Amino acid sequence: MSASLNENEVRYERLRPAQIVAAREACPVAYLPIGTIEWHGRHNPIGLDALKIHQLAIRCARAGGGLVFPPLYYGESREEGLMEANADDRDRILEAMKLPRQNFAPGYMRFTPQQQYDNCQRLLFHCLCQMQSLGFEVLVVAAGHYPLLDHARAACAQFHQARWNNRRRWSITWAFTGYELVRDVYPEAGDHAGYWETSLVLALEPGLIDMSELPSDPKEPLVGVHTSKPVQEASAEFGEEAVRLMVERILVQVRDRLQDKAAYSGHGWRA
Q: Which residues of the chain are modeled with pLDDT < 50?
C-alpha cells in the first residue's frame, strides 16, 4: 500500500509508521489537545473543552501541517476547578446529574489540590518529552479548558530548562487556548458553555449539541453557563468564522517558531 499521507488524516494514533514519517518530515509540528470533563450546560457535551480543542488542532494541522496527538481529558485539580464542585449553582448541576454533594466533599480526590496541580504538570511534561523523542521540533499544547493554560505553560517552562545527557532540549514549545488570540476581534470570546463555546462546537462537532435543551426565553438563567450574549443566538456560521481566524493566527505563531527556532531557544519566548 502507498506510504503517502492521507491529506485528511492528521491524528497521530491513526497513522501507519511511513505516514507519520512523511508528515513529520514535511512539517515537524506536534499538537497536544488538553481539556477536561465538566458540566457545560444542558445543551452541550460534558467533554466540550477537549472536543473543541481537538478539532481546532486538527484544523490547524490540516491547514499548516503537523500531526495531532490524542487529547487528554484528565489532570487538573477536581477540587478547585470543577463546575460540579465549585460553581455558585452547583446544587442545580448536581441535581441535573443526579449526584449527591458528598461525592465532591473536600479530599475526595485523595490528593491535595496542589498535588493535583503538580501531577497535571508532570503529565504534560511527560507528553512533551515523548513528543520530542518522536522527532517533532515544535510542540504545541492546545488547552481547551482555559485554566489548563497555566499548567501547560508551567510544563513548557520546565521542559525548556530540562537536560538530557547534559544537552538542552532540541524541541521548542508553545501553549494556547485560542480565544486569547482573537479577543481583539471577538470581545465575547472565552465564555463557559455560552454563545462563544456553543458556536465553536456547532462548527466543529455539530452532532453533539441539542439546542432544543435551551429555554425559548433568552432571559431565563441557565445552569452552569457564563455568557455575555444569549446562547440561543449561537450559530455554526459564527463558530466557523471564529475558527478560521483562530487557525490563521495560531499558524502564524507556529510557523514563526518552526522557521526561527533559535529566537525561542532561551525560554520558549521570542528573543
A: 1-5
Q: pTM here?
A: 0.94
* Grid cell at residue 55: 478539532
Domains of the chain by range and CATH? Answer: 12-185+246-264 (3.40.50.10310)
Q: What percent of the chain has pLDDT over 70?
A: 97
Are the C-beta atoms of 59 and 254 separated by less than 8 Å? Answer: no
Coil, helix or strand for 7?
Answer: coil
User: Is 242 in contact with 224 (CB distance < 8 Å)?
Assistant: no
What is the Cα–Cα distance from 203 to 35, expressed in whole angstroms? 18
**d(C-alpha 116, C-alpha 75), whole Å:** 7
Cβ atoms of 71 and 35 within 8 Å: the answer is yes
Cell of residue 69, nine digits: 496527538
Q: How far apart are alpha carbons 31 and 68 in whole angstroms? A: 5
d(CA 120, CA 105): 21
